[in-house]
Specification:
Elements lengths: L11 H5 L13 E2 L2 E4 L3 H12 L5 E4 L15 E2 L7 H8 L1 H24 L11 E4 L6 H14 L4 E3 L1 H7 L8 E4 L3 E2 L2 H14 L3 E3 L4 E7 L2 E6 L4 E4 L1 E4 L10 H4 L3 E10 L4 H6 L6 E4 L5 E5 L5 E8 L5 H15 L8 E11 L6 E6 L2 E5 L6 H15 L21 H26 L1
Parallel strand pairs: 1-12, 2-3, 2-13, 3-9, 5-15, 13-20
Antiparallel strand pairs: 4-8, 5-7, 6-7, 10-11, 11-12, 14-17, 14-18, 15-16, 16-17, 19-20
The structure holds flavin-adenine dinucleotide (FAD).
Length: 436
């Protein structure tokens, strides 16, 4: 009989990350040269980037705990690129800028790898690439993408034909695949905590359980008020609150649509997990608009994510939905027992690119990383750290991706309708191929 997901321990990551190191809340008035609001990857990467450049007077303030938001709940895929596809990037930015922007995401993958090593961050990293598997038999989408990446982005994704893929992954579902070798997967909450630890070890500060409730500028700089009534002062403030909107500046919040996506971890599968992945330990996602993403875990569970929605469903609903999705790919598992089910909020801008910049003198922001945030938050942290240390050059390529109104509440409906439309289109294509 299926064990119901435990409502108290909602995420596998929380259950498996070990004891939290814990960072004390702000309990008195204070100051720092730079204050970062939000203890997700974007905030932590900005702080780490500043410390790497010798600017150690930085304080990260997090309302809940480090990795409470998307950064502690995600699929754990570390790969190149952005939510916006490469073809659109090329069309919108032109060849040179698109290449630079894409290269920033690849450099970020490499930087994450280096940080894991340099700061001895234990986060179950599996540096064995990511497979982009074709849900359909028609492989023109794969060929076109591989060609585009090679021609314009100096990036070589390896072609894996259907027979070879079947030897790597025991699923009858897919056609061919592309293999992105320069990619890895990891335990996202352990990584967030490790990054926070590296900020503190480097001379920065992290405060948890401290919500910033107001932000104002005066002659001396920025004044932030905490929910406990303390005042923090700084020269510059960086808002990195993702889909967990801070409510501090309407222009920042209005440009974001928080969109939910779901993840489950099965019960340990023992030998059966190795049988599903006979020839790879890579993470896998597929070529549909509403794709599945999954990876094998060391304790023989299957971690599985998918779907996007404007609704935050209960763990039991998420478990039931994704259990069905798993059975479509691995029918041999039947109704696989799900031990953990949870959801998280991604932040999307209308243009599907990150928003990184300065809103007013000394008020900076980095948000809207969508479902492609592990590497891109790291890239954003580097861009902001460079800018805060005087070099704004890198930001120029991102300037066109500003803070347009995301259209709430109609934006939510449009996002859901778009999702359904693409989901319907994929289902139709699937039906046509199977009818042939
Ligand atoms: C389920 C899921 C799966 C995903 N899978 C992947 C994946 O496999 N690979 C990938 O690259 N990306 C993935 N993503 C996307 C990625 O996780 C995000 O893009 C990234 O974590 C965003 O980081 P962030 O720092 O911008 O936001 P968050 O991690 O959401 O952090 C924002 C933080 O700000 C805090 N905050 C908000 N308001 C305040 C305030 N007033 N005061 C203090 N603190 C405040 C919040 O508590 C929160 O901790 C996934 C996302 C989700 C939700």
């Amino acid at each position: 009989m299926q064990k119901p997901p435990d409502e108290r321990v909602r995420s596998y990551y929380e259950a498996s990350a070990g004891p939290t190191p814990g960072h004390a809340a702000v309990v008195a008035d204070g100051s720092a040269r730079t204050i970062v609001v939000g203890g997700g990857y974007a905030g932590l990467a900005t702080a780490r980037g500043l410390i790497d450049r010798g600017d150690r007077d930085v304080l990260v303030v997090e309302a809940e705990h480090v990795g409470f938001g998307a950064s502690g709940r995600n699929g754990g895929f570390v790969f190149g690129g952005y939510s916006l596809g490469e073809a659109s990037l090329l069309r919108q930015l032109g060849a040179d800028a698109a290449r630079r922007v894409y290269a920033r995401s690849i450099a970020a993958v490499n930087l994450i790898r280096r940080r894991l090593y340099e700061h001895a961050i234990e986060c179950d990293a599996v540096d064995e690439g990511v497979l982009w598997a074709n849900w359909f038999r028609d492989d023109s989408v794969l060929r076109e993408r591989a060609e585009l990446l090679k021609r314009h982005f100096d990036t070589d994704w390896e072609w894996v034909d259907a027979a070879r893929l079947r030897g790597m992954l025991d699923s009858p579902r897919y056609g061919a695949a592309l293999f992105e070798r320069n990619a890895l997967h990891l335990h996202p909450l352990k990584y967030a905590r490790g990054l926070a630890g590296s900020v503190v070890a480097g001379g920065g500060r992290v405060a948890e359980g401290t919500r910033i409730v107001a932000l104002a500028r005066d002659a001396e700089g920025w004044r932030l008020r905490t929910d406990a009534g303390h005042t923090l002062r700084c020269e510059r403030v960086v808002l990195c609150c993702g889909g967990y909107l801070a409510g501090l500046r309407p222009a920042i919040d209005r440009s974001i649509l928080p969109i939910a996506t779901y993840v489950v971890a099965t019960a340990p599968l023992g030998e059966r997990l190795a049988q599903l992945f006979p020839g790879t330990r890579a993470a896998v996602y597929d070529s549909r608009f509403a794709f599945d993403y999954y990876r094998p875990l060391a304790d023989t569970r299957l971690l599985w994510g998918g779907r996007i929605s404007i609704r935050d469903r209960s763990p039991a609903q998420v478990a039931a939905l994704l259990q069905r999705d798993i059975a479509r790919v691995f029918p041999q598992l039947g109704a696989v027992p799900i031990d953990y089910a949870w959801s998280g909020l991604m932040s999307y801008a209308r243009h599907e690119m990150p928003q990184i910049g300065e809103l007013e003198p000394g008020l900076w922001y980095a948000q809207a990383f969508g479902g492609h945030g592990l590497a891109t938050t790291t890239a954003a942290g580097e861009l902001l750290a460079e800018a805060l240390c005087g070099d704004r050059g890198g930001l120029a390529d991102y300037r066109g991706y500003g803070l347009p109104w995301a259209g709430k509440p109609f934006g939510f409906l449009a996002a859901q309708a778009t999702y359904w439309w693409f989901q319907g289109r994929d289902a139709y294509k699937d039906w046509r191929e199977s009818a042939r």
